[in-house]
């Protein structure tokens, strides 16, 4: 019989609903209790999902809980994850793993010492879109990849998040730390670890106006750069140009394009799970479409446009698969894919981009990680309902 891990949720905010939705798709975890520094938020979450609300300390001391799901804001990730590990719980955290590399390294060290699992979002690279691209690249459809482009650019979260302040805060704000994890994890999954970065930055507006919720209309201060442009050099010698921006009203570029010696590939949105992959092998030739909507983690499951701007009725969202895959690996003593080494390396790339841009110099990446193995159908079938 499948073991169902009892999960304690810390941080009952905006994204929590997505993880409760994951109960519908995955068979091996159940969020049974929740906590938040804001007791009203945890009570509301508990009554909505018919679970128990506890204080954070009581949740951490609760013997029933095996995994802490850390959905707090980025600057609290380190503190909450550390406490969870010290209370002998496995941890799965929303992105980023922490807001600085030293804290992330410490978390990894504690987890190793205590023989506990530490896992992190994003898990979108386990979706049909990125996995299909990985399959085609590994089958050498476009030859050796030398170059590429990636872009995440939009006007910012302030219009649709009721508490957007952390996205514009000095240490943990900005598009690199917010959206970088999706794009960079997707790239590391396809190309392997990075070795060096450089870039430039800008901050367009000093203040932004909140567009939704109780604080609608309030102006908040922007305390961080809101655009990063630059280049990532990967260990496999591919060179990728990137744009990460909260300063773009609209654009019409592909999320990720990779250029190989025998063709080019368009990789779908790394913030979602599905989407088609396109390959062209000839200048001016056709782009062959590889659909992912029949794949178990690519099937369209979003029926309505939600408050999260990227969720529309053409998308697949299976967030929580990383937690489920980690639970499977705990049970079967295997290495999980959304592991601490991968997230630490991605955080290191992000922080190095920020450093390179602010100090106007190339920065070497000192961490590394193994390229995650393809997530095959047999493995997916074991955790999917
Ligand atoms: N909002 C999204 O669409 C989205 C999407 C993907 C990922 N994420 C990630 O999920 C995380 C949470 O985002 P969100 O939008 O849900 O934020 P949110 O502000 O809506 O919710 C965060 C919750 O954590 C609580 N909290 C903060 N510090 C805490 C602490 N020390 N201990 C206990 N509780 C604490 C807050 O009170 C709040 O209820 C972030 O890391 C974000 O990057 C968000």
Please, could you describe this protein's structure?
The mean pLDDT is 95. The chain folds into two domains: 5-123 and 377-383, Rossmann fold (3-Layer(aba) Sandwich); 127-314 and 340-364, Dihydrodipicolinate Reductase, domain 2, CATH 3.30.360.10. A hairpin with a 4-residue loop joins strand 11 and strand 12. Helix content is 30%, strand content 22%. It has a nine-stranded mixed beta sheet. Strands 3-2-1-4-5-6 form a six-stranded parallel beta sheet, sandwiched between helices. Strands 9-10 form a two-stranded antiparallel sheet. The longest helix is centred in the last third of the chain and has 20 residues, at 340-359. Helix 5 (101-113) runs antiparallel to helix 9. The two termini are 13 Å apart. The protein is α/β, with parallel strands linked by helices and 385 residues long. The structure holds nicotinamide-adenine-dinucleotide. Nicotinamide-adenine-dinucleotide (NAD) binds at residues 10-15, 36-38, 41, 56, 71-74, 76, 79-80, 94-95, 163, 308.
